[in-house]
Design brief:
The complex is a heterodimer. Chain A is α/β, with parallel strands linked by helices. Chain A has 2 domains: 32 residues, no CATH class; 144 residues, Alpha-Beta Complex (Nitrile Hydratase, Chain A). Helix content of chain A is 45%, strand content 12%. In chain A, helix 4 crosses helix 5 and helix 8 packs across helix 9. Chain A is globular and about 60 Å long. Chain B is an all-alpha fold. Chain B has one domain. Chain B is 58% helix and 0% strand. The longest helix of chain B is centred in the middle third of the chain and has 18 residues. The radius of gyration of chain B is 18 Å and the shape is globular. The termini of chain B are far apart. Classes of the chains: A alpha/beta, B mainly alpha. Chains A and B meet through helix 1, helix 2, helix 7 and helix 8 of A and helix 1, helix 2, helix 3 and helix 4 of B.
Chain lengths: 204, 112
């Protein structure tokens, strides 16, 4: 329950896990193993600088530049690093292309591996047991719950991420977007369309 | 970019400040070479599996609780933060909150 009582005699006690985190931070800082300023920098990066807008840039470039798309599909790690999107954990990036024949969808059944540099921190549902268990077992049903229905002739392929390999879906460019600017195209590329649980927006 | 307007507001990257902090600490320790990321991921997935045996984890608070448990265990094994020390500093933080007047910044008593 929210608790914001200004008559409270003492500072609001954070939840128990928060105090354990503070304890770890205190101990590691005193030992010189971490630097609080570096933590703030990491948090700022993930909160404000890294997010699905990075992935959207890559998708739009692939939509508009066939040569870029070709190299992206062959060696995404190198190509996205060239754009300044590095995997901090040294992971490999693989881009999988949606086609009329095959729709791709990404999960991490083990934990929550995710292409951080391109999409930021995963949403809660991506980390939930329900999604992690069901994405592989019944992908079409999961897709339907996300509001995605695919033609029967389109097969669904599910990619299971690992600590070493992270996947990004390259969605199909929507019809009627010829001549649109890169910024306008990027606005069509949703986070979910790059996880494969959604499709790009259609221009109005 | 007006197409965004019809879209629901995105959920915050980190729902709670401590989620951000435990995440950042882990990334910092990995970058400082305290452990490899695949090793971390393997341990973390074990914790998730264990915690998910009796109930479905929703990927919110319970996800970061599992993350914290994994980090605590890892640091205990490495001797970087022993459970007894973590507990006494946690208690010290709790005391600091309970004895700091509301609205004032909370500091840990300097125990050295």
């Amino acid at each position: 329950m929210p608790h914001d009582d200004h008559d409270h005699p003492h500072a609001l006690l954070p939840p128990e896990p928060a105090l354990r985190v503070k304890a770890l931070e205190t101990i590691l800082t005193r030992k010189g193993l971490i630097d609080p300023a570096a933590l703030d920098e990491i948090i700022d990066t993930y909160q404000n600088k890294i997010g699905p807008q990075n992935g959207a840039r890559v998708v739009v470039r692939a939509w508009t530049d066939p040569e870029f798309k070709q190299t992206l599909l062959q060696d995404a790690t190198r190509v996205v690093a060239g754009l300044g999107y590095y995997g901090r954990q040294g992971e490999h990036m693989v881009v999988v292309e949606n086609t009329p024949k095959q729709h791709n969808m990404v999960v991490c059944t083990l934990c929550s591996c995710y292409p951080w540099p391109l999409l930021g921190i995963p949403p809660s549902w991506y980390k939930s047991d329900a999604y992690r268990a069901r994405a592989v077992r019944e992908p079409r049903k999961v897709l339907a719950e996300f509001g995605v229905s695919l033609p029967v002739e389109t097969s669904v392929r599910v990619w299971d991420s690992t600590a070493e390999i992270r996947y990004l879906v390259l969605p199909m460019r929507p019809e009627g977007t010829e001549g649109m600017s890169e910024d306008d195209l990027a606005a069509l590329v949703t986070r979910d369309s790059m996880i494969g649980t959604g499709l790009p927006r259609v221009p109005s | 970019m007006t197409t965004c307007a019809t879209h629901t507001a995105p959920e915050p990257v980190f729902a709670e400040p401590w989620h951000a902090h435990v995440f950042a600490m882990t990334v910092a320790l990995n970058e400082a070479g305290r452990f490899d990321w695949p090793d971390w991921a393997a341990r973390f997935s074990q914790t998730l599996k264990h915690n998910g045996l009796n109930r479905d984890l929703d990927g919110g608070d319970d996800y970061f609780v599992a993350w914290l448990e994994t980090l605590e265990q890892f640091l205990a094994e490495q001797g970087a933060a022993l459970p007894g020390d973590v507990e006494s500093i946690r208690q010290a933080w709790e005391d600091a909150y309970l004895t700091t007047p509301h609205g004032h910044p909370v500091h840990l008593a300097e125990t050295g």
